[in-house]
Inverse folding.
């Protein structure tokens, strides 16, 4: 029994020794593990969810902190509905939904994938406008009157029957997009209605101004001496200055002494005197012309007035006296003029009259162009409170070139300064450029138009506006390019083509990054003025700034890249949705690009990213397709062709400064 107990004691002692040894060995190892913890692996899907149509494939994007991405295991909870291979490519097999998982070490990510059968016949068709009919004939209006044009858009069930009106000359008439015409000043202009797909119809508008009768005309000076052989251009003033004037006719009482042309040019033929008469609208004025022998004319060498400055009250009169040197000057008659007849007037005798508050300069000019000046200030008479009418409208600029969303402030000055400074600002085409009530012009889309400022009494001044949504570029063969990147990369122009095959680390996301680079080149350059090609974009921005993982093709990744460069992006729209496509068309017509994803079939065996850069009058879009086996597919294609290749998972994103 003692031996038996001794045996158990020995065995227990051995176990105790072994335990102590293990403790000694394991404790340092545990401390060592604490000092060097194992890095935790995180894994996630870039997309929040995926929607496919039956038969469509899509490569899932993974963001992972491990370098061993090739060890990721993929699985599907319903593989008979959605299958997934070891590269993360999913395929919709039949209608339903499944959860696809990606597992690496102890980290796991899940994404919901829906699969549906789409009957294209059930989609709401997008019906284009085929014709715009204007139901009015030629429009004749008096200045200041309005008229609403009646239009009819065919077919009547067109998806978007909206029309935009433009006018050739805002000075004559303006028009709103509702077809409301405002007659401005006399003349003829053409108004054109455009549909969003480029169909148009035009109508002519004639505007007649109210008739303003001519009360009198005045020669300045009223007498003249010329040497034989000399000529002199007559000067006539019409009262009022804005009267409707017909053709002025001239006559001479003795053409053998003084001849006069149809334009009022007087020619001294022989010594003697004759009277030149100008007639228009039943009114006439005359000037006495004396012809003297050659070399007997004594020129005026100075004119001096008795006052340098003069202050008058409104309604007051005064007379200026001129001293002409030398005393024996042949032509002592002077031409009197006012820099602003709405402030002060002057007649041939130097008699002035204060009209309204303001400043003006009276000038006395000899027939050989010697001048003298008087500064006139008219102050408001305390007994008078009437406001003068505007006589002149001056703008700070006459033309401007803008990019989309770029603005320019225009200021208007109404003369005389005492007149109301209120003006109405009107855009000839708000679709191209708008103008605020304070004269701020904003570029909207590429094109030309006019911005007009209009006073209450109908004076008009305009600014010619050119909007270039994006700069235009040409390649070495002078072919027009939509972006600088497409100029030197498009296969159709003979250039090299950057795609998955030769862009290095872009890998299977080559179509995404190449499309991004193309769109970015329309807006963005570096400090040296260079654009970002796909390889540079990938290395410096996408990977360098860690905007997305190696697989960058989803809308989330694209939005990160465009936002990084300061561009705006829209929500993700469905290509198969007709109302969403209308947003795409309007966006393209404003000169901005679109990023689009299409499903499997027409373009690639799996999903594919492309860029739509422009739209033409036939509703064809310029499709930039970066697929390596179709480097020449950078041309106009119909939008319906793209739609026919788009499943329910196809989406597009509006990109640019203006969304």
């Amino acid at each position: 029994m003692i031996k038996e107990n001794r045996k158990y004691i020995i065995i227990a002692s051995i176990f105790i020794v072994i335990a102590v040894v293990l403790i000694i060995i394991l404790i340092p190892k545990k401390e060592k593990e604490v000092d060097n913890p194992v890095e935790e692996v995180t894994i996630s899907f870039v997309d929040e969810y995926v929607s496919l149509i039956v038969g469509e494939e899509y490569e899932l994007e993974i963001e992972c902190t491990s370098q061993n991405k090739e060890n990721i295991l993929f699985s599907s909870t319903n593989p008979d509905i959605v299958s997934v291979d070891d590269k993360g490519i999913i395929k919709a097999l039949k209608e339903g939904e499944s959860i696809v998982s990606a597992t690496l070490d102890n980290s796991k990510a899940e994404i919901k994938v829906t699969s549906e059968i789409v009957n294209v016949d059930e989609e709401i068709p997008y019906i284009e406008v085929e014709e715009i009919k204007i139901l009015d004939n030629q429009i004749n209006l008096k200045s200041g009157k309005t008229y609403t044009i009646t239009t009819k858009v065919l077919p009547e069930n067109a998806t978007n029957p909206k029309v935009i009106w433009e006018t050739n000359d805002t000075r004559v008439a303006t028009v709103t997009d509702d077809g409301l015409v405002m007659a401005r000043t006399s003349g003829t202009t053409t108004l054109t209605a455009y549909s969003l797909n480029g169909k148009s119809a035009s109508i002519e508008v004639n505007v007649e101004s109210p008739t303003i009768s001519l009360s009198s005309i005045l020669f300045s000076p009223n007498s003249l001496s010329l040497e034989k052989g000399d000529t002199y251009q007559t000067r006539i003033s019409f009262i009022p200055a804005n009267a409707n004037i017909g053709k002025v006719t001239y006559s001479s009482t003795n053409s053998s002494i003084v001849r006069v042309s149809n334009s009022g040019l007087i020619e001294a033929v022989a010594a003697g005197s004759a009277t030149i008469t100008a007639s228009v609208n039943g009114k006439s004025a005359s000037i006495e012309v004396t012809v003297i022998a050659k070399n007997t004319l004594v020129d005026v060498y100075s004119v001096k007035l008795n006052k340098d400055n003069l202050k008058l009250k409104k309604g007051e009169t005064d007379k200026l006296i001129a001293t002409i040197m030398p005393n024996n000057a042949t032509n002592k008659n002077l031409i009197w003029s006012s820099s602003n007849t709405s402030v002060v007037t002057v007649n041939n005798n130097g008699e002035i009259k204060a009209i309204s508050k303001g400043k003006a300069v009276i000038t006395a000019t000899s027939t050989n162009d010697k001048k003298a000046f008087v500064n006139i200030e008219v102050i408001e008479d305390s007994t008078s409170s009437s406001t003068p009418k505007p006589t002149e409208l001056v703008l700070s600029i006459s033309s401007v070139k803008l990019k989309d969303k770029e603005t320019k402030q225009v200021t208007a000055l109404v003369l005389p300064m005492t007149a109301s400074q209120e003006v109405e600002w009107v855009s000839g085409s708000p679709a191209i450029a708008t103008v605020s009530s304070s004269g701020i012009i904003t570029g909207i889309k590429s094109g030309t138009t006019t911005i007009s400022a209009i006073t209450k009494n109908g004076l008009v001044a305009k600014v010619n506006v050119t909007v270039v949504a994006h700069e235009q570029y040409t390649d070495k063969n002078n072919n027009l390019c939509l972006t600088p990147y497409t100029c030197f990369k498009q296969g159709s122009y003979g250039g090299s083509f950057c795609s998955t095959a030769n862009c290095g680390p872009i890998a299977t996301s080559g179509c995404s990054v190449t499309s991004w680079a193309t769109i970015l080149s329309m807006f963005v350059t570096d400090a040296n003025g260079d654009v970002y090609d796909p390889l540079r974009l990938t290395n410096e921005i996408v990977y360098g700034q860690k905007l997305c993982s190696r697989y960058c093709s989803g809308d989330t990744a694209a939005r990160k890249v465009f936002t990084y460069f300061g561009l705006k992006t829209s929500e993700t729209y469905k290509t198969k949705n007709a109302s969403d496509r209308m947003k795409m068309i309007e966006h393209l017509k404003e000169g901005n690009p679109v990023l689009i994803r299409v499903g499997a079939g027409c373009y690639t065996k799996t999903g594919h990213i492309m860029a739509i850069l422009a739209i033409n009058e036939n509703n064809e879009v310029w499709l930039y397709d970066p697929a390596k086996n179709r480097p020449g597919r950078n041309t106009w294609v119909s939008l319906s062709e793209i739609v026919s290749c788009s499943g329910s998972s196809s989406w597009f994103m509006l990109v640019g400064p203006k969304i």
